[in-house]
Specification:
The complex is a heterodimer. In chain A, helix 1 runs parallel beside helix 5 (about 140-160) and helix 3 packs across helix 8 (about 185-210). Chain A has helices at about 1-30, 35-50, 55-85, 90-110, 140-160, 160-170, 175-180, 185-210, 215-230, 235-255, 265-275; strands spanning about 115-120, 130, 135, 210-215. In chain A, about 75% of the residues lie in helices and about 5% in strands. Chain A has one domain: ABC transporter involved in vitamin B12 uptake, BtuC. By secondary structure, chain A is mainly alpha-helical. Chain B is of the alpha/beta class. Chain B has eleven helices and ten strands. In chain B, the strands form two sheets. Chain B has a six-stranded mixed beta sheet with strand order 6-7-8-3-9-10, with helices on both faces. In chain B, helix 3 runs parallel beside helix 7. Chain B starts with 18 loop residues before the first strand and ends in a 14-residue tail after the last helix. The chains are: A mainly alpha, B alpha/beta. The interface between A and B is medium-sized, with 22 and 30 residues.
Chain lengths: ~290, ~280
Amino acid sequence: MLQQTVNGIALGATYSLLGLGVTLIWGVLRVLNFAYSQFIVWGAFGTLIAIENHVPTVFAVLIGMAVAGVVAVFVDMTVMQFMRRRGTSEFALVVATIGVYYILSSVAQDRSKSQIETFPIGGFPHGSVDIGSTSLPSLQLLSLVISVAVMIVLGYWLNRTRLGRATRTVAYSAPTAELLGVNSRAIFALAVFVSGCLAALAGIFNAADSSTLSYSDGDQLLVVAFAVIVLGGMGSVKGAVIGGLALGLVQVYTTLYVSGVFSNAITYLLIVGVLIVRPNGLFGVREEARV
Amino acid sequence: MTGASTVASPEGLADVPAVAIENLGKRFGGVVAVSDVTFALSDETITGLIGPNGAGKTTLLNLITGYLKPTSGSIAIKGKTVTGWLPHAVAGMGVARTYQNILLLDSETVATNILIGCHGALQRRRLVTRAKEWRSRPGRDVVERLLTVLNLREVAKDEVAQLPYGMRRRVEIARALAASPSLLILDEPTAGMTRDESDEIGRLVQQVRDAGTTVLLVEHNVRLVRAICDEVLVLQWGNIIARDSAERVWDDPVVRTAYLGDMEGQESETGPAKQEGGTTNAGA
């Protein structure tokens, strides 16, 4: 039981990373970004290509994060910015993100010739760490540590820094923020860049965990990310972390004690149950208080 | 109508008006909201901007702050043309404002709302200063001072959404002052306030002017306008129809007709002289 709890927390840590990225985009830009799935993939591919070119793993990870961040900003400053200026509805923006998803996915698919590629994990932590009577794979421990660190840094940034407060103001109302001297476009770009970096991190950990990388890896992870933020409360940083960990634990428990086949079905039924009781999610915040 | 614009004199910046607006116009489709408006605001003065509803007052403020782009004309802040600039860039020139409909971050505390107002002032600091003050949580001293000045200390940690209307107004003014503005634009700052509260705001605005800030005040409270404004601009149908001192402007028959309405004999009952202590509803 203890071992499974540790496994669940480790799985949930990656889910939390995914949730943090999506909740940041949604909180600031108020759009569910389906292209996020490909930010996950492009980040992992960025790292893969860097490793293939003999870049040390730590730098390869940073390059992967930068690739996803830059792609995310590029998408936002072109397609999304153009549509926002035209006063497009949120639903139309979602459709646009689906279009971007297909474009990015096609490029990734072309690069990998529609094959699953091997993701070299030589430079990543391997083996396991004994914690009391339990054992945790080093890679998952690293994922957990990074998730917690990201949560702390994000929380500090949003609540204690000038730029963080500006981000919260933009999340509340971009026009109001502008009149207070906040460059909302720069804040959009910053939030999207950070979000892309987090997507890349999750994608890299996922690829390292399975030692493989596919252009479609992000699809399943995107569904998880959406589930995490809905469960935790959309726009809530704390909700993304707790939601991710809860989802990881529930998946591990249901696989172990109920059925591996029905694991996802039970997990998502539980989410529906939580939403019936708490429509705004576990840490749902009011509409004007996102991020 | 007066209001010929002054421009930067060759002698230097001393004669550069805080705001210089020339032939400013704004159309919404076929509707002319602001038409060929020209005026300049002198440094360290309080200028009242009055006029009936639909006169174009808020549109004019939105044009000055960059929230709307003008159809024609130009706007200069401290001699620098800012026509077409984005709102955050205009705010970066030291322009702060409050709104007719209060725009606060309702789920945040009073102190946080004021601290957010410091964004522009903190951003304008030199990088070296920023680095030095990084650990001292810059802006907190400004918040502390404004909590005292605006009498908000007791509610500093309260969520703004829980506050009564008059207090929310004061929070919004505090947030605008937190930007250390050179031009402060107040859009009906005493709306919904009691007489004592209005007087308090009036005294505060005078202190702000005396400290070196230029104030543009949109207000329906005639008593307040007469008490604190150095001069008054009267707007009607998007045009400035008069500009004079706060005392003399009411004697202008055009203003009396436009602002107080065509009273046809009732003027002696409702004219400016009878409105001491009251807030006219003309145009409200």
